[in-house]
Amino acid sequence: MNIKNILPFLLAAVLMASCESEDLSSPVALFTAQTTPRYMFKINLDVSGSFSSKDDDWLEYRWDINGDHLGWEADWSSNPVVTVQFPYEYNGYIGLQVRSNNGTITELYQGFYTNEDYRIQKAWSDLELDFRRIDYDFSYTDHHRTWVWGYDNIQLPDSQHWYNFTSSEERAEYGTLVPWNVADTLDNDYRLPSIAEWQQMIDYCGGASLAGFNLQVLADHGLQLTLPGIIKGGQLLEHGKTGYYWTGDEIDEESAWALKISADSDEAEFVILDKSSMASVRLTIEFLYYR
Questions:
Q1: Do 161 and 180 meet the contact criterion of CB atoms below 8 Å apart?
Q2: Can you tell me the distance from the alpha carbon of 44 to that of 85, in angstroms, rounded to the nearest whole number?
Q3: Which of 76, 81, 167, 222 holds its CA 20 to 30 A away from the CA of 142?
Q4: How do the domains of the chain map onto residue ranges?
Q5: b/e for 171-200, b at 16 or more Cβ within 10 A?
Q6: Buried b / exposed e across 260-280, counting CB within 10 Å, b at 16+?
């Protein structure tokens, strides 16, 4: 074989060796939402399912949260979980780029759809002052479920037995702060949510680590809980910083459980309060099933 015939083979061998020495394979990009996306609620996006074909590779991630293809809302990070406020009322796309340590990038845009089925209406109750209710509707193959919550903090007329704010604006926003024994006997049908029922709402709002934020979000499909504070020893404390909401679960004759949310935390937690403390009230009724 002459030199002219050998040169093409040598060139091909060099190119093959070059390709083998530099791995140009792209990482696989995968991500999920850890909880159901809901408009304006915070959710965790988890990219830990992404991987590289190389065992010793490390990956970085960045996100296009609003899906506009115009920019990336976060710098590159090795953290596989990011917390974002979901931007779409009905549906939209979120973008992800995954970069390996050799600079190879894989891009993925994933569609999300939110199905909010709820209605807000007047609640007929034994209370002198009316309040609204929000009904969450869920349809299944064999039944229909309606989940009913008070849409406002309960307001009561002036009395020495509970606390009302002085201005009409604050009354409308914060409602009335009442002791547990009053809260537990307000209505024959509507009642204080149990810890289990509050927990179901916490789960609906993204779990304990995010529900404190999501329960306060000013979105029609949320409870929009406010932060009136609490009355202890006749003094209004933590006003505008914390909200305490009674549960129907007692500890003993002197104390009961309450839900606590704060302005400076995304978390929701349960705490024990003396029953003489005055806290906020949201009422609920039994789930309704139609078969």
A1: no
A2: 9
A3: 222
A4: 22-113, 118-290
A5: beebbbbbbbebbbebbeebbbbeeebbbe
A6: bbbeeebebeeeebebebbbb
CA end-to-end span of the chain = 85
Q: Are residues 229 and 239 in contact, defined by beta-carbon separation less than 8 angstroms? A: yes
- In the numeric block, which tokens belong to residue 137? 């509707």
Q: What is the pLDDT along the chain (291 residues), one digit of tens a residue?
A: 554 444 444 333 433 444 444 455 789 999 999 999 999 999 999 999 999 878 778 899 999 999 998 989 888 999 999 999 999 999 999 999 999 988 999 999 999 988 778 999 999 888 877 889 999 998 888 888 899 999 999 999 999 999 999 999 999 999 999 999 999 999 988 999 999 999 999 999 999 999 999 999 999 999 999 999 999 999 999 999 999 999 999 999 999 999 999 999 999 999 999 999 999 999 998 776 766
- Using alpha carbons, select from 205, 182, 201 the residue that is nearest to residue 193: 201
What does the block give as tokens for 111? 């569609």
DSSP assignment of the chain: --HHHHHHHHHHHHHHHHHHHS--PPPBP--EESS---TT-EEEEE-TT-B-SSTT--EEEEEETT--SS--SS--BS-SEEEEE---SSEEEEEEEEEETTS-EEEEEEEEE----EEEEEEP-SSSS-EEEEEEEEE-SS-EEEEEEESS-------TTSB--SSHHHHHHH--BB-HHHHTTS-SS-BPPPHHHHHHHHHHTT-HHHHHHHTT---TTS------BEEETTEEESTTTEEEEEEEEESSSSEEEEEEEETT-S-EEEEEEETTSBBB---B---EEE-
Architecture of domain 22-113: Sandwich (2.60)
